[in-house]
């Protein structure tokens, strides 16, 4: 006998809020891209060009996130009985790939800059505009990361983390451009572009790695696993359950899938076993909003050890 939980009642509200944040990223991306492109046009700086190009990637990935979220919020159907939640991971993988492509393009432009260094035009105005764009990015990146974790959206978290690397890049770019302006060392401009490209490559690889973990059904973190075990043991401790074992977990977008076997005495009625499953499911969903719980009830001869233990 298996007991399965129902979706959380406020899932529609969460999806709507996540979608509004994704649309907000698109708007912020347009503003930041316009500012950084203006800074690049005013100065002709390769370092500022690399910063603007990273913002172009941000804009493209914001569009990808919106598309992914529209797919991820679709209800389960005959062909996708577990839902479409993993669409968010595909968005994050695409973001990582675009980041890597942008970094390679920057490296090529930086090589040309080393071959023929040139002085910058209107550097102070360009730096001021770039600084304003970086400030906007920092504020929005923090908002995305905080709300992405709150609503368990890997696409928003990935977007926020990438924006934060963009902020770090912008700070480094401004420092390098300022140093080149103060010293007259024109090679510092393409050198900063190279450093930005390396930083972008690193962040892109991390985004891809995290997304592939989700696509490969990686288990939840040790902290979440400890919470799940504690909740199961606490919820079942006052009832006739003999044991819980073969616990399996995985993430799919904002949803955590939890499966395990619950051993009951042979004389337990179906109604009593079902009531216990409901209580355990409710406790797990309270601890991990968005959880989908499947419990397989077994007779006592299926027990692996004595006591209320949970085996991974």
Relevant terms:
alpha+beta, transport, Alpha-lytic protease prodomain-like, about 300 residues, elongated, 2 domains, Alpha-Beta Plaits, 8 helices, 4 strands, 4-stranded mixed β-sheet, membrane, ferrous iron transmembrane transporter activity, Cation_efflux_CTD_sf, zinc efflux antiporter activity
Topology:
Elements: E1 2-4, H1 11-43, H2 46-72, H3 87-115, H4 123-150, H5 154-183, H6 188-215, H7 222-236, E2 243-252, E3 255-264, H8 270-287, E4 291-299
Helix pairs in contact: 1-2, 1-4, 2-3, 2-5, 2-6, 3-5, 3-6, 4-5, 5-6, 7-8
Quick overview of this protein structure:
The chain has 312 residues and is an alpha+beta fold. It has 8 helices and 4 strands, in the order βαααααααββαβ. The longest helix has 33 residues, at 11-43.
Q: If you had to describe this structure to a student in words, what would you say it looks like?
A:
- With 312 residues, the chain is an alpha+beta fold.
- The protein has 2 domains: 7-215, Cation efflux protein transmembrane domain (Alpha-lytic protease prodomain-like, Up-down Bundle); 222-302, 2-Layer Sandwich (Alpha-Beta Plaits).
- It has helices at residues 11-43, 46-72, 87-115, 123-150, 154-183, 188-215, 222-236, 270-287; strands at 2-4, 243-252, 255-264, 291-299.
- The chain has a 4-stranded mixed β-sheet with strand order 1-4-3-2.
- Residues 5-9 have low confidence and may be disordered.
Strand content: 5-15%
Radius of gyration: 25 Å
Q: What's the number of structural domains?
A: 2
Main β-sheet: number of strands, strand sense, barrel status? 4 strands, mixed
The level 1 CATH classification of the largest domain is: Mainly Alpha
Number of strands: 4
Structural class: alpha+beta
- Contiguous runs where pLDDT drops below 50 for at least 5 residues: 5-9
How many DSSP helices?
A: 8
> How far is the N terminus from the C terminus?
21 Å
Global outline: elongated
CATH superfamily of the largest domain: Cation efflux protein transmembrane domain
CATH architecture of the largest domain: Up-down Bundle
Order of helices and strands: EHHHHHHHEEHE
Indicate the CATH topology of the largest domain. Alpha-lytic protease prodomain-like
| Neighbour order of strands in the largest sheet | 1-4-3-2
Estimate percent helicity.
55-70%
């Amino acid at each position: 006998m298996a007991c399965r939980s129902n979706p959380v009642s406020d899932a529609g509200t969460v999806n709507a809020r996540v979608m509004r944040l994704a649309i907000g990223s698109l708007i912020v991306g347009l503003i930041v891209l316009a500012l950084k492109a203006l800074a690049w046009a005013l100065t002709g700086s390769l370092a500022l060009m690399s910063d603007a190009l990273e913002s172009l990637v941000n804009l493209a990935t914001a569009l990808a996130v919106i598309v992914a979220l529209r797919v991820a919020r679709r209800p389960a159907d005959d062909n996708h009985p577990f839902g479409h939640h993993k669409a968010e991971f595909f968005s994050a993988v695409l973001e990582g790939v675009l980041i890597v492509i942008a970094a390679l393009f920057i490296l090529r432009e930086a090589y040309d800059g080393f071959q023929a260094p040139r002085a910058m035009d209107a550097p102070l105005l360009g730096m001021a505009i770039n600084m304003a764009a970086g400030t906007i990015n920092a504020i929005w990146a923090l908002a995305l990361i905080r709300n992405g974790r709150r609503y368990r959206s890997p696409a928003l978290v990935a977007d926020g983390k990438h924006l934060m690397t963009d902020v770090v890049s912008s700070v480094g770019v401004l420092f390098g451009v300022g140093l080149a302006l103060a010293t007259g060392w024109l090679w510092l401009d393409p050198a900063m572009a190279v450093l930005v490209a390396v930083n972008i490559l690193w962040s892109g690889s991390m985004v891809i790695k995290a997304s592939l973990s989700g696509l490969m059904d990686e288990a939840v973190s040790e902290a979440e696993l400890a919470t799940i075990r504690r909740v199961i043991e606490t919820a079942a401790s006052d009832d006739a359950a003999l044991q819980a074992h073969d616990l399996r977990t995985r993430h799919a977008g904002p949803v955590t899938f939890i499966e395990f076997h619950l051993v009951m005495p042979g004389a337990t009625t179906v109604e009593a076993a079902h009531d216990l499953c409901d209580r355990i499911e409710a406790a797990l969903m309270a601890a991990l909003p968005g959880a989908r719980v499947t419990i397989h009830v077994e007779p006592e001869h299926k027990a692996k050890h004595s006591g209320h233990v949970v085996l991974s």
